[in-house]
Amino acid sequence: MKKILGVLALVLAISGIASGGQDFLKKITVGTEGRYQWKDISSSDEDSTPIGNAGFKKENRSRTRWHKTISGTINLSEEWGVGLDFSFLHRNQTERKGNDRTREVVFTNPGLTFYKDIKIGSLDTDWKLKWFNEHTELRKLYSGGVAQPTEKRTLDDWNEFLFGPTFNVKLLGQDVKVVTELVYYNVKNGASGRHFLPAGSFDKKSRIHGWGFDLGLFNKGKIVEGNFGSVTYAVGFMNRFRDVSGKIDGKSAPSNIKLNYTQNIKYTTPSFKGLSGYLSVENEWIKHTGRGGWENEFYIIPGVNYNTKFSTGIGEVTVSPWMSYSLLSRETSYKKNREDKKQSFERNELRVGVNLSLNLK
Question: pTM, whole model, 2 decimals?
Answer without folding.
Answer: 0.87
